[in-house]
Amino acid sequence: MQRRVLVTALSAALLLSACSSAPDSKQAQQASAAASMLSSAPPPPPSPPAPPAERGALAEARTDQIVVTGTRVRSPEVVASARMLAAPAPAAAAVLYDMPAPPPHGQAANTERYAERDDNPVQRASEQPVSTFSIDVDTGSYSNVRRMIRQGVRPPADAVRAEEFINYFDYGHPGPASLDTPFRATTEIAPAPWNARRHLLMIGIKGYDVPKSDLPPANLVFLLDTSGSMNTPDKLPLLKQAFAELTAQLRPQDRVSIVVYAGSAGLVLPPTAGDRQDEILAALDRLEAGGSTNGGDGIRLAYAMARRAFIEGGVNRVILATDGDFNVGTVDGGSLDTMVADQRASGIALTTLGFGQGNYNDALAERLADAGDGNHAYIDTLQEARKVLVEELSSTLLTIAQDVKIQVEFNPAQVAEYRLIGYENRMLAREDFANDRVDAGDIGAGHEVTALYEITLAGSGAEQLPPLRYGAAQAAAPGARGDELAHLRLRYKRPGETTSRLIETPVPRRAIRAEPGESMRFAASVAAWADALRGGTHLGTWDWRAIAEGARAARGHDRWRLRGEFVDLVDASRALVADGGRMEDPAVSAVAR
């Protein structure tokens, strides 16, 4: 019965191909003959298997899924057989098209995992004048979402982290003159492009940029996932290319170890001098994917190797590359977080690099990097690997300030409301700001950190919260500086120190600019795109077209064409949403905190 269905479908496809190619009578005759031969062929016996002469494209074709909608035949098996048995026919190609390739390894559904998050709420300055959060230098959310958009997939909302979108780009914040002050903080305030009655406050932090040649010796452990789930081109093969790029940057004073894990962990390369690159590359080239994923054992062995080759006063870091699909040994996220957090006191940091799709565990990769005083990036292309591991090598490897916290106190006499854009999973309690035992984000050499607040000035009439029935806005406290919009405080520790240092700067009202600068306009466009992908509840008068136009107008100097690529992504995602593009399974959009 199945063969008869296949024969009927193939005959129809071949006849349609022949008819559409009428000028070529020989081709039509060949197609008709092939269809006739198929229709008259006897069905094969159920056993034993057909002889080799009868096998081939037809024997490989299956009829377990033939879906007909109107005139469109959606069976990839029929399409493949028709293409092999008949000459190409443009008209047939118009009605026969391929379904997306099935997930690798027989995986039935997308199991990517993203941490649940809600946008920061609008706050009344009179009720909650202080906002406190940890800095974030991760960029993985942006490149991961870029991968989805390029594939025609609308990303789940929880995959979008606005602060990582914003911090993917360089805004030219001025840096400090020397490493004596590891970073410099600046502010800019101007009308919000989506609502001129509100304003944006941009906080920029720039770390001291240490040239690659001046980096201290590095002790690096490549902790590489070689489990069976890594056996696709966008995983282990891309991983090998990425780490080959990093290997090319190593110097004789550097040390590299390679630890792999699948069903168990193993040492592939003991600590090896950075100038022995042939040995390092050969070790990478030998890696193959297979087995289950015992990430816990891999992490333990990697830290053991990092301690063995520890360089006092140098860079000591584990670089974990994985799709995050831990399924053997220590698999609980909380236990892995604790394991990594316990190790950071030893002076060994952890960076995580995400690879692949379908089972990517973004939530785990981000949390491990946070716990390990490191950063998280997602590698979707070799170009992204070069950006993270070559162009940004100093900031990826060398930490110049630890536990960096930001606190903004808004003056209720000047600011009615405010909203922090992004950083939802970086929020800190007010008392945590001065508590040096509370962990926060780190800044690498040359790193930039950008944060945006949308604020509503008192008396502007643009308030978003309804007035209180029994409460009124508090007047400024006696002696308060009425000309200040806000007061910015930053705390940080130098590497190896346990006591934080404080930087303070006021934000005066006279600093308001009539128009935002180029950097703020581009950052605003990035923030707006992130909001649009999450549902577009804070866009004011802006729409998809305005976001793209705003970014295009503020593109400025674009050495690596990253801003131009952003404009392309906005246009692609606008079309994707308008066309009702494929949407990730909502069941995989979040994982409980």
UniProtKB/TrEMBL annotation:
<dbReference type="InterPro" id="IPR021908">
    <property type="entry name" value="YfbK_C"/>
</dbReference>
<dbReference type="Pfam" id="PF12450">
    <property type="entry name" value="vWF_A"/>
</dbReference>
<feature type="domain" description="VWFA">
    <location>
        <begin position="219"/>
        <end position="397"/>
    </location>
</feature>
<dbReference type="Pfam" id="PF12034">
    <property type="entry name" value="YfbK_C"/>
</dbReference>
<dbReference type="InterPro" id="IPR036465">
    <property type="entry name" value="vWFA_dom_sf"/>
</dbReference>
<keyword id="KW-0732">Signal</keyword>
<protein>
    <submittedName>
        <fullName>VWA domain-containing protein</fullName>
    </submittedName>
</protein>
<feature type="compositionally biased region" description="Pro residues">
    <location>
        <begin position="41"/>
        <end position="52"/>
    </location>
</feature>
<feature type="region of interest" description="Disordered">
    <location>
        <begin position="27"/>
        <end position="57"/>
    </location>
</feature>
<dbReference type="InterPro" id="IPR002035">
    <property type="entry name" value="VWF_A"/>
</dbReference>
<feature type="signal peptide">
    <location>
        <begin position="1"/>
        <end position="22"/>
    </location>
</feature>
<dbReference type="Pfam" id="PF00092">
    <property type="entry name" value="VWA"/>
</dbReference>
<dbReference type="InterPro" id="IPR051266">
    <property type="entry name" value="CLCR"/>
</dbReference>
<feature type="compositionally biased region" description="Low complexity">
    <location>
        <begin position="27"/>
        <end position="40"/>
    </location>
</feature>
<dbReference type="InterPro" id="IPR022156">
    <property type="entry name" value="Uncharacterised_YfbK_N"/>
</dbReference>
